[in-house]
Design a protein that fits this description.
With 486 residues, the protein is an alpha+beta fold. Helices cover 33% and strands 22% of the residues. The protein has two domains: 226 residues, 2-Layer Sandwich (Endonuclease, Chain A), CATH 3.30.870.10; 188 residues, Endonuclease Chain A (Endonuclease, Chain A).
Amino acid sequence: MARPPIPKRLKRSWLLRGGLALALLYIATLVWHQLKPLPEGVNVTGPWRSASVVRFHADSTWLDAAGVQHSEHTIFPHAFSMIAAADRLAVADFFLVNRFAGQASAGYRPLSAQLVDAFMARDASGAGRSSALVTDPFNTLYGGVEQPLFTRLRQSDVAVIETDLTRLRDPNPLWSAAWRICCQWFGNASEGGWLPNLVGEGKVTLRTYLAMLNFKANHRKTVAVVDAQGAMGLVTSANPHDASSRHDNVAFSFNGAAVGDLLESERSVAAFSSGEPPDWPRIDDAIDAPTPLQIRILTEAAIRDAALAMIAEAGEGDAVDLLMFYLSHRGIVRALIDAHKRGARVRVLLDPNEDAFGRKKNGIPNRQVAWELHRAGVPVRWCNTRGEQCHSKMLVRRTAEGAMQVLAGSANFTRRNLDNYNLETNVQIRGPREAPLMHTVSAFFETRWSNRPEQLHSLGYNRYADHSRWRYWQYRFMEATGLSTF
């Protein structure tokens, strides 16, 4: 006997209930992954530490009076020598380690392979030495391609730890909530792709594209080593990435107990990504005697809090200098304008957001933020880029009394970088303005702001001024929602 047909009204009721349940699941997922507790060891404000060695390193590109481009690179020669000389431990954490992302042709350096060579040279010189590279899954396109560089490292007993980004909060919640419900369970595979690989050769799966739209990363750029001379750390804005090798960047290397703090922050990422804490030795390399300079490690939103405090404390007679690849964070923008109104001398030097690995960009967000700052009377200049990026991230404050602070590292001043979405690491350094390191940092910024007859580093505000209200509100929408790559 046939069953009677289900009434249409009942079908609509089931569909309505099912749709309501799915909508509630979506909203609950969205809210939870915005507010969920962070993994242990994330969002860290390290203690102030003494350091007897603190060095500044910079990669610079400029034009001479004839329009010929010149470059000087010091960061990775130092980083690679640190890794190769480490006789107990070498741990690096870098966002981009690959040959495929972007256009790398004549004039670029094979930095990714050189990083691998530094690790392999170190391990070849003796047994029983711990080595690890912590990195972002973008380098395998979220499991969608094989990464030969990582294969070489693993064959040399160097641990390669790809960060588990699902443990982090979601900067693009409108998409990520749906992805967590429908797609994250399927994993990925490096075979069987049918879609074009936008950053390299071959094909990738749809799952690669879906994962990429989460727009989050382990964006850190650090090195921590232990050698015969003790422990040394390095925090930088630079990636060992071939197509990034012409970019302007800054870095600081240092010794002392802050290296232990840096290593502990990396131990936390390795633990929640691999499921167990790595067997790395603990470092307690405290400097007994007081030193002119003090340094501390900051990660994630602790970087934002330190930057806001530095700017908020600036007043009449003080100076605030900012060199930044991406500036869009509303709190930082307002703080800079407020400091200018209080009488501080504020200067902002920005990348024009014109080039990205051979592709042209539309200037968002920097040109829109620059317009806002310019209207408020804050002086703004542009890095004079020619295909490369002004990729540095550094904030400097000098007081009328002669004290100075520097904040530098991986973090752009954006919502994604500063509000506990990406993983980021910066160092903050304080000391007297007359200290040699502080003098070097001040001279570095002054040269880029004011130029020299034989070195044209920056251009005036009008060169890239963009007063489009449409693009300004486009930036504001993208910053607020996370529907952006900055």
